[in-house]
């Protein structure tokens, strides 16, 4: 606890420009590692991850892209017909029951105008917070994907508070869970999912039951490159045929296609 307090105070006192895609608390200590097929996330391991809630209940994930904005899946808010005043964003802790969580209101929802309900194309939305986030190691922004994107991403993960069993709606977690992911070949994936578009990517494991599930939607797929310890958000958890089934990858909104849309907002 003393080390954590020192790190937090130091980061706040410096007041310097915050780099995206960094994990100062998690990467600054030794990790003791202990979703479907998933593991519990460590403190500060995914400081950009947020819980989007309605009536104090988690229903989707999201990620911090700067001190004012959260990025998530459009279907999270459209299918529930939610207004900004219905939403709250919980950040700063892996444990949603913790007294140390920070809660922000939402003043504006920005939906992609070309969202297609029939195939989930352009499944992306932005939430404007009612007050800025103070970055402190437990809350940090994720980097947007580089242009051009690397041909191979290294060390990809998803995290969330969603179901850990595909057939048990009561298996929602209050502790953040993480699963490793492999980005799969688009052409091969399109044979399984004919409605796949070039605004989507597939990720999962061909022979393992690792996946995102209900309640994880809107959360980030994050990766590094082999030569770079910076974390980039590559995708947004969007849809799939089922959770954690072998040879059934999850489908993600391909974030690099929306860099200009995000900048214009």
Task: Give the topology, please.
Blueprint: H1 2-14, H2 24-27, E1 39-40, E2 49-54, E3 57-64, E4 69-72, H3 74-78, E5 87-91, E6 102-111, E7 125-129, E8 154-160, E9 177-183, H4 186-192, E10 200-204, E11 220-225, E12 228-239, E13 250-254, H5 259-264
Antiparallel strand pairs: 1-9, 2-3, 2-5, 3-4, 4-7, 5-6, 6-7, 8-9, 8-11, 9-10, 10-13, 11-12, 12-13
Protein name: Acrosin
Keywords: Disulfide bond, Hydrolase, Protease, Serine protease, Signal
Catalytic activity: Preferential cleavage: Arg-|-Xaa, Lys-|-Xaa
Secondary structural class? alpha+beta
| Mean pLDDT over all positions | 83
State which percent range the strand residues make up.
Answer: 25-35%
User: How many independent structural domains?
Assistant: 2
CATH class of the largest domain: Mainly Beta
Q: Superfamily at the CATH H level of the largest domain?
A: Trypsin-like serine proteases
CATH architecture of the largest domain: Beta Barrel
Tell me the number of strands: 13
In this structure, how is the largest beta sheet organized? 6 strands, antiparallel, barrel
Q: How big is the Rg?
A: 17 Å
CATH-defined topology of the largest domain: Thrombin, subunit H
* Continuous helix count: 5
- What is the H/E string? HHEEEEHEEEEEHEEEEH
Which spans of ≥5 residues are poorly predicted at pLDDT below 50?
1-15, 30-36, 165-171
Q: Write down the overall geometry.
A: globular
Distance between the termini: 39 Å
Helix content: 10-25%
Domain Peptidase S1: 35-265
Enzyme class: hydrolase
Keywords: Disulfide bond, Hydrolase, Protease, Serine protease, Signal
Signal peptide: 1-15
């Amino acid at each position: 606890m003393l080390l954590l307090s020192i790190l937090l105070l130091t980061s706040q006192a410096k007041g310097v420009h915050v780099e995206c895609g960094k994990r100062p608390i998690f990467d600054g200590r030794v990790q003791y590692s202990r979703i479907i097929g998933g593991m519990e996330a460590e403190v500060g391991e995914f400081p950009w991850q947020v819980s989007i809630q309605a009536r104090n209940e988690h229903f989707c994930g999201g990620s911090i892209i700067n001190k004012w904005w959260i990025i998530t899946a459009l279907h999270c808010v459209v299918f529930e017909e939610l207004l900004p005043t219905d939403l709250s964003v919980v950040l700063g802790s892996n444990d949603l029951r913790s007294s140390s969580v920070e809660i922000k209101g939402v003043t504006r929802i920005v939906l992609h105008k070309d969202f297609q309900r029939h195939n989930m194309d352009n499944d992306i939305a932005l939430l404007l917070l009612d007050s800025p986030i103070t970055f402190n190691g437990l809350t940090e922004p994720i980097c947007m994907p580089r242009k051009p994107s690397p041909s191979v991403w290294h060390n990809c993960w998803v995290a969330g508070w969603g179901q850990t069993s595909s057939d048990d709606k009561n298996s929602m977690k209050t502790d953040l869970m993480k699963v490793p992911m492999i980005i799969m070949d688009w052409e091969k994936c399109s044979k399984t999912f004919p409605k796949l578009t070039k605004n989507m990517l597939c990720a999962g494991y061909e022979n393992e039951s690792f996946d995102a599930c209900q309640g994880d939607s809107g959360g980030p797929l994050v990766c590094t490159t082999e030569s770079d310890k910076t974390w980039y958000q590559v995708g947004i958890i969007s849809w799939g045929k089922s959770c954690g089934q072998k040879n059934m990858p999850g489908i993600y909104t391909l974030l690099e296609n929306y860099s200009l849309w995000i900048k214009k907002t």
